[in-house]
């Protein structure tokens, strides 16, 4: 069957507003929009102004009203704790209402921010949906982030309440969240007076008198209460999700209610080929955008069943966990990051664990979050006998910008490319002056304004930062900060970032933020952190430290201090384990550190001596320091 992709993209191109007005029929509105798009509103325009809606109603209530109440909405499968739980649409709606009642009782109002700092437990999704129900704006903070990162988000979002759990679980260890929560609240300038804490069986917590409410007892008391869905403007924020910026200060990506629902519902069908009753599994974390869009909101908006997985691709207990879940829960389509497959391939290269399960109902695997290397894709295709689809997007877009749209009919796969631009987006590849480059030539990947529904309209309380960071460099376009090229057939290839962001095991991290932390060490004069190639995680950070003259402490101790500092301030997720004390850093004559050349040396790639280098001998010193650690050529 030929793909409907071209006809669909062309129909969007001819009439973008008509296209999204049609897609919006998939959503139940309290009041329809006055305009599909108004270019005079906000920074670059707003979608569906005038409309009133509620995201929780569309994700839960209407499915119960339409007879889907007994279908599982969320299947929690936690190999790490050995527990499983199925929550039907009816059950989750009741839990969400009870939780919404507790929030209302504690003074949370429409438009208030609520931070959610929780591991992969159903209560995280319940808290998100309860916020959506009452029109509060949630901001989920990934559990792998330490107190400092949580504190910076508290100060930016100024929440009235934080919902947390006593702990998260990593293989072989319990991560106590509560001490990190208490520390973050102490550190933050903005004061939070109410926390609701879920005590997990693995770890008790010490409540702070007058501030902390116990999740289980509060919900037990509120069970059976009903809370109506608050009608909010389509343009009101549903959530703020912080993502790494080019400095230590994270950016609060704002997501609205209306455009977000329309875009996600459209993508579930057209991209992922998922509809009512299908089982969809995004093996990510609710702390990331993938978790927001494709664990919680996307599948529920279309009446599908979503898997909420607390575990790892390997080691919980073995590299067959993914196949066990697909088999046991009838997963039709799965989404994860390539790094998960690299981990499985490493532990089970022959795919022996795959053979132990019945994957005959499994239809498709989607990969995103980092470059999907052709070897990994081919391995997955061969072992799973399903199409393996690379697709490309960002926290900012909230849903895929480039993909092979399986629901419209699959396009030929080209390894190394996430395929073609989706309706809603017009993507150009431009040089630094903003001129379009020839097909096949490398350049900056930019998106013509306006962005599609569902994409960020701005940054939280920071319109000017939004303009400066994304819109100023290429007027009329949104800068993705990815570089790549488009081939003659319109297939896009993503090659690298143009800023200091690195991608570690599918996690987006700022090397600038790590440099800020290391520079704070009293013995460090200056430093540079780069991302170097890693067979499992794609990239890992590597720090180069120049010590102050006169420092008498052992360099190894200072390296260890810096590693500990990054772990303490950003969190274990930074995976910062390589710090090298060097005599000096290579720079241009104008003083810019030559990070790109250092990276090429570390990755064992061909490199040329930069014409503007101040002292060529320094690159040899860097190569030597890396070689001593077994890195580079
Ligand atoms: N809470 C606390 N700590 C966490 C955490 C969480 N939610 N998630 C990760 N960490 C810790 C890990 O335990 C690890 O700690 P360690 O340095 O003490 O070992 C550290 O952060 C780095 O984690 P990670 O980069 O994930 O490496 P890993 O070795 O634990 O696992 C993979 C490697 C490939 C198995 C893992 O990265 C994975 O499953 N990736 C899937 C991709 C994914 O989910 N991407 C999200 C975007 S789609
Ligand atoms: P995040 O905002 O955490 O989702 O990270 C977004 C960034 O991850 C993008 O800007 C890319 O740099 C990278 N990325 C996401 N998907 C892909 C992909 N399919 N191929 C290559 N890089 C990707």
TrEMBL record:
Ranges of residues in domain AMP-binding enzyme C-terminal: 514-592
Domain Acetyl-coenzyme A synthetase N-terminal, chain residue ranges per copy: 5-59
Superkingdom in the source lineage: Bacteria
EC number(s) per entry: 6.2.1.17
InterPro entries: ACAS_N, AMP-bd_C, AMP-bd_C_sf, AMP-binding_CS, AMP-dep_synth/lig_dom, ANL_N_sf
Enzyme class: ligase
Keyword list, A-Z: Ligase
Alphabetized GO MF terms: propionate-CoA ligase activity
AMP-dependent synthetase/ligase domain sequence ranges: 66-450
GO cellular component: intracellular organelle lumen
Record keyword Ligase present: yes
UniProt xrefs under PROSITE patterns: AMP_BINDING
Family: Belongs to the ATP-dependent AMP-binding enzyme family.
Protein name as it appears in the record: Propionyl-CoA synthetase
Source species taxonomy: Bacteria, Pseudomonadati, Pseudomonadota, Alphaproteobacteria, Hyphomicrobiales
């Amino acid at each position: 069957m030929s793909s409907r992709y071209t006809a669909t993209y062309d129909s969007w191109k001819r009439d973008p507003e008509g296209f999204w007005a049609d897609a919006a029929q998939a959503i139940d509105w309290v009041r329809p929009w006055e305009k599909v798009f108004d270019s005079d509103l906000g920074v670059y325009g707003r979608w569906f102004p005038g409309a009133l809606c509620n995201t929780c109603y569309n994700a839960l209530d209407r499915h119960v009203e339409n007879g889907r109440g007994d279908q599982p909405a969320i299947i929690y499968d936690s190999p790490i704790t050995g527990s499983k739980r199925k929550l039907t649409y009816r059950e989750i709606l009741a839990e969400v209402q009870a939780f919404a009642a507790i929030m209302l009782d504690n003074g949370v109002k429409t438009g208030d921010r609520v931070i959610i700092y929780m591991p992969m437990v159903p209560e995280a999704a319940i808290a998100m949906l309860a916020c959506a129900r009452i029109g509060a704006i949630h901001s989920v903070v990934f559990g792998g982030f330490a107190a400092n990162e949580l504190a910076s988000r508290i100060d930016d979002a100024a929440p009235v309440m934080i919902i947390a759990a006593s702990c998260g679980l990593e293989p072989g260890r319990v991560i106590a969240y509560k001490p990190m929560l208490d520390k973050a609240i102490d550190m933050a300038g903005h004061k939070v007076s109410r926390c609701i804490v879920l005590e997990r069986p693995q770890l008790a917590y010490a409540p702070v008198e007058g501030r902390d409410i116990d999740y289980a007892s509060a919900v037990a008391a509120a069970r059976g209460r009903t809370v109506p869905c608050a009608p909010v403007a389509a343009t009101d924020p549903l959530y703020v999700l912080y993502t790494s910026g080019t400095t230590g200060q994270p950016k609060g990506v704002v997501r609205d209610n209306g455009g977000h629902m329309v875009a996600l519902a459209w993508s579930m069908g057209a991209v992922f080929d998922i509809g009512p009753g299908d089982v969809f599994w995004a093996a990510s974390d609710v702390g990331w955008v993938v978790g927001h869009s494709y664990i919680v909101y996307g599948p529920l908006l279309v009446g599908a069943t979503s898997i909420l997985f607390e575990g790892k691709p390997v080691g919980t207990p073995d590299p067959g966990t993914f196949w066990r879940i697909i088999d046991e829960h009838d997963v039709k389509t799965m989404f994860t990051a390539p790094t998960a497959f690299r981990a499985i391939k490493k532990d089970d290269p022959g795919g022996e664990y795959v053979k132990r399960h019945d994957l005959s109902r499994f239809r498709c695997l989607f990969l995103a979050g980092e470059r999907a290397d052709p070897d990994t894709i081919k391995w997955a295709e061969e072992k799973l006998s399903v199409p393996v689809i690379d697709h490309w997007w960002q926290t900012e877009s909230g849903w895929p910008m480039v993909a092979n749209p399986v629901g419209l009919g699959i396009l030929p796969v080209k390894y190394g490319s996430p395929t073609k631009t989706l309706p809603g987006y017009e993507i150009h590849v431009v040089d630094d002056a903003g001129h379009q480059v020839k097909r096949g030539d490398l350049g900056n990947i930019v998106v013509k304004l306006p962005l599609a529904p569902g994409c960020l309209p701005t940054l939280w309380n920071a319109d000017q930062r939004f303009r400066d960071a994304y819109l100023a460099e290429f007027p009329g376009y949104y800068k993705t900060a990815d570089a790549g090229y488009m081939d003659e057939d319109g297939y896009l290839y993503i090659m690298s970032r143009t800023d200091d962001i690195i991608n570690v095991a599918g996690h987006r991290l700022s090397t600038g933020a790590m440099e800020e932390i290391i520079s704070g060490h009293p013995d460090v004069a200056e430093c540079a952190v780069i991302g170097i190639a890693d067979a499992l995680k794609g990239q890992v950070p590597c720090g180069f430290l120049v010590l102050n003259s006169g420092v008498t402490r052992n360099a190894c101790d200072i390296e260890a201090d810096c590693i500990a500092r990054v772990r303490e301030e950003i969190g274990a997720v930074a995976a910062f384990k390589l710090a090298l004390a060097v005599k000096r850093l290579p720079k241009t004559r104008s003083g810019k550190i030559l990070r790109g050349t250092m990276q090429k040396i570390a990755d064992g790639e061909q490199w040329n001596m930069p014409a503007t280098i101040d002292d060529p001998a320094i690159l040899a010193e860097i190569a030597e320091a890396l070689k001593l650690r077994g890195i580079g050529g």
